[in-house]
Amino acid sequence: MKDQIQLSDHFSYGRLIKFVIPSVTMMIFTSIYGVVDGLFVSNFLGKTPFAAVNIIFPLVMVLGGFGFMLGTGGTAIVAKTLGLGEKDKANEYFTFIIISTAVMGSILAALGIMFAEPVAQLLGAEGEMLDYAVRYVRIVLLGMPFFMLQNSFQNFFITAEKPKLGLAVTVAAGVTNIVLDALLIGIIKMDIEGAAIATAFSQMVGGTVPIIYFAIAKNSAIRFCKTHGYWRVLLQACLNGSSELLSNISSSVVTILYNYQLLRFAGENGVAAYGAVMYVAFIFIAIFIGFVIGASPIVSFHYGAGNTDELKSLRKKSINMVLIIGGAMLLIALLLAWPLCQLFVGYDSVLRDITLRGFIIYAFSYLISGYNIFGSSFFTALNNGAVSAVISFMRTLVFQIAAILLLPELLQLDGVWLSIIVAEGLAAIVTTIFLIAKQKQYNY
User: Fold this and answer.
1) Predicted TM-score of the model (pTM)
2) Taking a C-beta distance cutoff of 8 angstroms, is the pair 62, 245 a contact?
3) Angle between helices 413-437 and 366-381 (to 10 degrees)
4) What are phi and psi for residue 50, nearest 5 degrees?
5) One digit per residue, pLDDT tens: the chain, 444 residues?
6) Angstrom distance (rounded) from CA 254 to CA 103
7) What is the DSSP code string of 380-436?
8) CA 98 – CA 23 distance, rounded (Å)
């Protein structure tokens, strides 16, 4: 019996679960150490710094999204190339994409630091909140090249058939963040700079360790090697992964609109409440993202190898699993709503009550969000970045913007929380249409 699961294997439910679990755990852990960051800021520094971190975080996510773009888009190409039996070429593509990620990360970090204050003002920060936001983000952006590399490597570890190693790297980065949060904020009392330094150092760990591994690895499916300027491949990787970048940008734009509406209807408490709701949502959504990160290279490999029966099996099994997981997540969220809200904002009863109601309403979106996330990533894995981008664009931008602008005018604060449910429902219709329309083309 083989211990090592390979991309070329047939995947039963059990084998698929076993293969994606490290990726799911990896993404959950990534989200948890982000949540710990929020807990320290909220409980040790107060709701104004907490709101400041939440209002500037879209900038970090937009820039970090370029790493997800190159990772997911590049993985689809590299895994497909492996499926075609061209291992040397796959290594060259992989190496060039990682070099490009590091260069792009450095440029974006410099631009972000330069324009941090006007961006924070554009996002709605002013006064004391503006000061906290700028101080925080300028330090965090020092780690941006490593954050982009970490996001990219999360996908490539799966293609390398080393998902457990990817998990270990993420755990190491997360532990670094948590320990430094406790030391710098809890003990040394460094204010908002402590949280920023903890985040930046954790990103450096997450981005540096994989570089060392792929430079010396001998039994990995992919590794670093001498490469060339594969600009067409880089462009294709960007197109393939455009839905992931678009998703990050869209989420950030939507977050800005959420914060605007929440400031209108609930003031600073609304922004802080949304921050708490989203920190927990990151963990739940991370389960879906981890699943598709783990499953996508398998889809790409079998697409490249022409194994249509396996494609059909993977599509059916994956949809069944994300729907079941979504139902379980709703139940868990409802059971944990009160203790989680108490943990984040229990020091302020008004803020806690706003957060609790928002948390419960928002939780119903988990029923269908996994289906939409899978639909978009499935087409990325099939090297169809255009369809993937359309699904992502409609789901994360068009439908959410329409909902967040219209529903609060009718339902006030409840309309803000209901927006995500309406958007996910409409996106599910779009996802289903594309899955049916493209079935004959890809024989899944």
Assistant:
1) 0.71
2) no
3) 40
4) -65, -45
5) 445 667 777 788 888 888 888 888 878 877 776 677 778 888 888 888 988 888 888 888 888 889 888 988 898 899 889 888 899 999 999 999 999 999 999 999 999 999 999 999 988 788 898 999 999 999 999 999 999 999 899 889 988 888 788 888 988 998 899 899 999 998 998 889 999 999 999 999 999 999 999 999 888 889 999 999 999 999 999 988 877 787 778 777 888 888 888 888 887 788 788 888 887 888 889 899 889 888 888 888 888 888 888 889 999 999 999 999 999 999 999 999 999 888 877 788 888 888 899 999 999 999 999 999 999 989 988 888 889 889 988 998 899 999 999 999 999 889 989 999 999 999 999 999 999 999 888 888
6) 28
7) HHTT-HHHHHHHHHIIIIIHHHHHHHHHHHHHTHHHHHHHHHHHHHHHHHHHHHHHH
8) 20
Helices (H), 217-307: 231-240, 242-305
Q: At CB < 8 A and 24+ separation, what contacts does 430-434 make?
A: 430/390, 430/391, 430/394, 430/395, 431/371, 431/372, 431/375, 431/376, 431/391, 431/395, 432/375, 434/375, 434/379, 434/387, 434/390, 434/391
> By C-alpha distance, which of 248, 270, 251 is closest to 259?
270
From residue 322, give the alpha-carbon distance in Å to each of 20, 291, 328, 423: 12, 8, 10, 18
End-to-end CA distance of the chain: 29
CA distance 100 to 68: 13
